[in-house]
């Protein structure tokens, strides 16, 4: 079994390059099924966020099937020339890949060091792979262990951060530029998790917020839609006309196309902002935040004279690993324990064929013992259950007493103690 991954992220690639390899949720599911079938993979998981895209695969130890790299697979699915972006990707195998994932779920590789959102993103990637039948035993074990490690680190280690999400960065920037946000008119395009988070933060600061909803998705009745408290609903189709009078526009959708095009908004952003706060304090700029990958806002809008446009690369900042040196070491100690657990799990997998052979031998022995006594027992009687238990017991005894001849005496106690602990584990209950 071989675990491999390839990834592109903010550390080596700009947003222009990352968005070429981004996937919507529907795109992730479609790509998973296609990759597993086309490349004969045992399993695959695709993680696609604003800051990174990673493809994880597990393969049989078959050189013929393993010749194609995960990077080539990703390019084939995206229909991208493999010569264009290879320098922006990092490929990792087995232990190196697992070490990366353990640190990733703790936010060590995030743009905002130590941020929490990556845990839910990794969990969602695993869940989508499960739904598509692509999470094989090895990837399932690796990702479950990484999520458990990340949860323990978040519980026991305190990593200091300037902010924990892109949503909070929006607020930080606005407060820095505008001061008090009370009454500032805002439009949030997108009713997803990020959009709602931004709305709730803006409302908490006293801003006047409207949010777009797609009627085809949410129905015609406003009550059928999930709208954060103290936020008004507007139709997504009316988003352009709704820009008028708004000083802050935030777009966070899963759309593969621009939600705001330069030619559509030219008339609004070519003149100074004249809302109440802008007039009284001379702050006549419009503040646009694009929290999507691929981008929602046409980059050409940034050239308009009264626009400040922020994307996820230009707005994120946070504390560094150096500022958390002591806490980072505590986290590394925790991750080392989980890494060692995975090392043992993978090392033991080489014995699975031998274990299955032993199971078959013991099962056959128990079956023969039961058949030998079955003719003397009335069918469906309690005695048949006792006979089955007796047969299983004798087969197990043969296995255990056989250790006397097969193992050096100094290993008897250690081996039997381990078997006893294993046998004492809770039996599956129905």
TrEMBL record:
Signal peptide: none
Active site: 50
Keywords (A to Z) from UniProt: NADP, Oxidoreductase, Porphyrin biosynthesis
GO MF: glutamyl-tRNA reductase activity; NADP binding
Residue ranges annotated for the Glutamyl-tRNA reductase N-terminal domain, each copy included: 6-156
Residue numbers binding NADP(+): 190-195
Pathway: Porphyrin-containing compound metabolism; protoporphyrin-IX biosynthesis; 5-aminolevulinate from L-glutamyl-tRNA(Glu): step 1/2
Biological processes annotated in GO: protoporphyrinogen IX biosynthetic process from glutamate
Source organism, top-level taxon: Bacteria
InterPro entries reported for this sequence: 4pyrrol_synth_GluRdtase (IPR000343), 4pyrrol_synth_GluRdtase_N (IPR015895), GluRdtase_CS (IPR018214), GluRdtase_N_sf (IPR036343), NAD(P)-bd_dom_sf (IPR036291), Shikm_DH/Glu-tRNA_Rdtase (IPR006151)
Amino acids binding substrate: 49-52, 110, 115-117, 121
Annotated positions for site Important for activity: 100
Domain topic, free-text comment: Possesses an unusual extended V-shaped dimeric structure with each monomer consisting of three distinct domains arranged along a curved 'spinal' alpha-helix. The N-terminal catalytic domain specifically recognizes the glutamate moiety of the substrate. The second domain is the NADPH-binding domain, and the third C-terminal domain is responsible for dimerization.
Note in the entry: During catalysis, the active site Cys acts as a nucleophile attacking the alpha-carbonyl group of tRNA-bound glutamate with the formation of a thioester intermediate between enzyme and glutamate, and the concomitant release of tRNA(Glu). The thioester intermediate is finally reduced by direct hydride transfer from NADPH, to form the product GSA.
Name under which the protein is recorded: Glutamyl-tRNA reductase
Organism the protein comes from: Aminipila luticellarii
């Amino acid at each position: 079994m071989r675990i491999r991954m390839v990834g592109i992220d903010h550390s080596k690639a700009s947003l222009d390059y990352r968005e070429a390899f981004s996937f919507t949720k529907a795109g992730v599911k479609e790509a998973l099924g296609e990759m597993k079938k086309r490349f004969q993979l045992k399993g695959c998981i695709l993680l696609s966020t604003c800051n990174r895209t990673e493809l994880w695969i597990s393969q049989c130890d078959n050189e013929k099937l393993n010749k194609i790299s995960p990077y080539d697979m990703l390019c084939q699915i995206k229909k991208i020339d493999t010569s264009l972006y290879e320098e922006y990707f990092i490929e990792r195998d087995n232990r190196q890949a697992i070490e990366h994932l353990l640190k990733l779920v703790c936010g060590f590789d995030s743009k905002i060091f130590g941020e929490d959102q990556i845990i839910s993103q990794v969990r969602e990637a695993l869940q989508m792979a499960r739904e598509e039948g692509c999470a094989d035993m090895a990837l399932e074990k690796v990702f479950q262990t990484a999520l458990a490690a990340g949860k323990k680190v978040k519980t026991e280690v305190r990593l200091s951060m300037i902010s924990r999400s892109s949503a909070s960065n929006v607020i930080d920037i606005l407060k820095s530029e505008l001061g008090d946000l009370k009454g500032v008119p805002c439009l949030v395009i997108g009713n997803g998790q990020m959009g709602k988070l931004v709305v709730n933060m803006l409302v908490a600061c006293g801003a006047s917020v409207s949010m777009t909803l797609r009627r085809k998705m949410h129905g015609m009745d406003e009550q059928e839609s999930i709208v954060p408290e103290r936020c008004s609903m507007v139709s997504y189709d009316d988003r352009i006309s709704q820009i008028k009078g708004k000083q802050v526009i935030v777009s966070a959708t899963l759309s593969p196309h621009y939600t705001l095009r330069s030619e559509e908004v030219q008339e609004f952003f070519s003149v100074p902002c004249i809302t109440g706060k802008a007039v009284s304090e001379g702050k006549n700029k419009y503040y646009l935040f694009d929290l999507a990958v691929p981008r929602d806002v046409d980059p050409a809008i940034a050239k308009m004279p009264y626009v400040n446009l922020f994307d996820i690369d230009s707005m994120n900042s946070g504390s560094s690993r150096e500022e958390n040196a002591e806490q980072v070491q505590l986290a590394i100690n925790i991750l080392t324990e989980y890494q060692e657990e995975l090392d043992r799990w993978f090392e033991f997998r080489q014995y699975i064929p031998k274990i299955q052979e032993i199971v078959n031998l013991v099962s056959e022995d128990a079956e023969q013992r039961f058949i030998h006594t079955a003719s003397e027992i009335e069918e469906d009687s309690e005695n048949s259950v006792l006979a089955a238990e007796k047969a299983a017991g004798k087969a197990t005894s043969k296995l255990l007493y056989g250790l006397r001849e097969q193992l050096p005496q100094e290993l008897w106690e250690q081996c039997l103690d381990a078997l006893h602990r294993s046998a004492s584990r809770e039996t599956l209950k129905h």
